[in-house]
Write a structure and sequence with these properties.
The chain is built from four helices and eight strands, in the order ααβββββαβββα. With 161 residues, it is of the alpha+beta class. The protein folds into two domains: 48 residues; 106 residues, no CATH class. The relative contact order is 0.16.
C-alpha cells in the first residue's frame, strides 16, 4: 500500500504532466491535461483518506430509536431519494426523501438522518454532461448495508439546534 506522501508525489507528477502537455501543444492536449488534473485530485484525496485511517463520514439513515438503517441515496424521478435496503443489501421497494428541509418529513415515516463513519475510497464519479461532468469524490468502500465503523450523530437536526 502506498503512503500518503507517495500519493501526493504522484499527484504532483500528474499536475506537472498537465503543465508539460500544455507547454508542448497548447490546448491541443486538453483531454490529457484534463485527465492529468483529475488523476492528481484523486491521488490527493487518496492521501487524505490514508491519513484519516481509510474512513470518512457519510450522511446516513437511522430509525427513531437510533438504529442504523441500510439505505442508499439515489437519483429518482423527482430528485434524490433514500432507497431502503434490507439487512442483506436487497432493495425493499420503499423510498424516502433525502435531505428534507424539516425533521418531521422523515420522522413521521419513522426515520431521521445522521452521520456515521464508514470505510472509504477516492473514486471518479460520472456526472451530467459526459466527460465534462466527471469528478473525484469520496465513496463508501463497503456494501451499502454494512454497519458503520462509528456513529457520529443519529439525528442531524438535534445537532443543528
Amino acid at each position: 500500500m502506498k503512503t500518503a506522501d507517495q500519493l501526493r508525489a504522484e499527484a504532483s507528477q500528474h499536475e506537472q504532466d498537465a503543465i508539460d502537455s500544455f507547454e508542448r501543444c497548447d490546448t491541443d492536449g486538453a483531454l490529457s491535461q484534463w485527465a492529468s488534473g483529475l488523476s492528481a485530485q484523486r491521488k490527493r484525496l487518496e492521501a487524505d483518506l490514508i491519513e484519516a485511517g481509510g474512513v470518512s463520514e457519510f450522511l446516513t439513515l437511522f430509525d427513531l430509536e437510533g438504529n442504523y438503517q441500510p439505505a442508499v441515496a439515489i437519483e429518482a424521478r423527482y430528485g434524490m431519494r433514500w432507497m431502503l435496503l434490507d439487512a442483506d443489501g436487497k432493495r425493499t421497494g420503499e423510498f424516502l426523501p433525502w435531505l428534507p428541509k424539516r425533521r418531521d418529513t422523515l420522522a413521521k415515516r419513522g426515520y431521521v438522518e445522521g452521520y456515521a463513519v464508514f470505510p472509504a475510497k477516492a473514486d471518479f464519479v460520472e456526472g451530467p454532461g459526459g466527460l465534462v461532468g466527471v469528478s473525484v469524490r469520496v465513496r463508501k468502500a463497503c456494501p451499502h448495508h454494512a454497519l458503520p465503523v462509528k456513529v457520529v450523530t443519529v439525528d442531524r437536526w438535534k445537532e443543528e439546534a
